[in-house]
Amino acid sequence: MLSWAFRLAERLSERAGVFRDVYYTAGFEEPFESYVAKLLLAYALTAPVVAALAVAVHMFVLRYPLFFALVLSFLVLVVFTLLFLLFSLYYPVYRRYSRGVSVDSRLPYTIAYFSALAASGTGLESIVERVVEVEEVKATRRELELFLTELRLLGLDALTALERRARMSPSIILSLFFAGLRDAYITAGNLYEYSAFMARRLLEIKRYELRRIVNTVSMLAEVYVTLMVAAPLMFVVMLSVIAMLGGSVGALPPQLLIAILVVVGTPASAAAILVALDGILSRV
């Protein structure tokens, strides 16, 4: 079965097109064909199990006739197939986006350090090697290490390696930096001027983003106070008054609504605020 999966994966990978580039920019270490083969093998192993469970549930638990059980089980299998395909396609895209955000968060400081080293007249390979030693972001360090690997192990020249990194980087800004670095290397050969210019521009953008994030967090704090303090108190008081008067809300007792608000509504609102805050601060 494994050999069959690899043969089919090779055929599908030839028609992957842009998705193959997305896969490699996502930072996977295994070949694209191996990834597709594993997905095919996983689907071949799980789909029969899902179909059998669906038939068993519809026939023995829900007591449907055989024909309806098979039809409904087929629909369940179709839904499972679509979800499996969606996850298979979305995961590399999400991973590339996550790596890009991680790279962009500290890239201005990395390029600023790069320009400081370039000011001393150090060669490109030595500069990148030194930046790799002090780089804290794993995704950025990996991109720079791949550049050094292409120079030392694959025997590529600096221009070709920069072009490959510009094409396969998960971050648009890092891709632009590699492409501009290649152009600067071809023309004047002055890496300091270009890297210093990029560092200044990125630091300005970083300051603008930080101001925007501060404003967003301030607005989110007001929303938090409203959802977690004012709104629950207001609804509890209103529902308590309705309960004292012997009324109901849509045929539901006010006591039940208060319990739902306290047990479900308030924690769900807090979780939503935390998720939104994490999404905002992850870009810092």
What are the segments in which pLDDT stays under 50 over at least 5 consecutive residues? none
The helix tally amounts to 10
Share in helix: over 70%
Count structural domains: 3
> What integer is the average pLDDT?
85
Which labels suit this protein?
284 residues, mainly alpha, 3 domains, flat
What does this structure look like?
Helix 6 packs antiparallel against helix 7 (158-168). The longest helix is centred in the last third of the chain and has 54 residues, at 191-244. The chain has 284 residues and is mainly α. It has 3 domains: 2-101, no CATH class; 103-205; 206-281. The protein is built from 10 helices and no strands.
Describe the secondary-structure layout.
Layout: H1 2-14, H2 18-25, H3 32-61, H4 66-118, H5 124-134, H6 138-152, H7 158-168, H8 172-186, H9 191-244, H10 254-281
Helix pairs in contact: 1-3, 2-4, 3-4, 4-5, 4-9, 5-6, 6-7, 7-8, 8-9, 9-10
What's this entry about, in short?
The chain has 284 residues and is mainly alpha-helical. The chain has helices at 2-14, 18-25, 32-61, 66-118, 124-134, 138-152, 158-168, 172-186, 191-244, 254-281. It folds into 3 domains: 2-101, no CATH class; 103-205; 206-281.
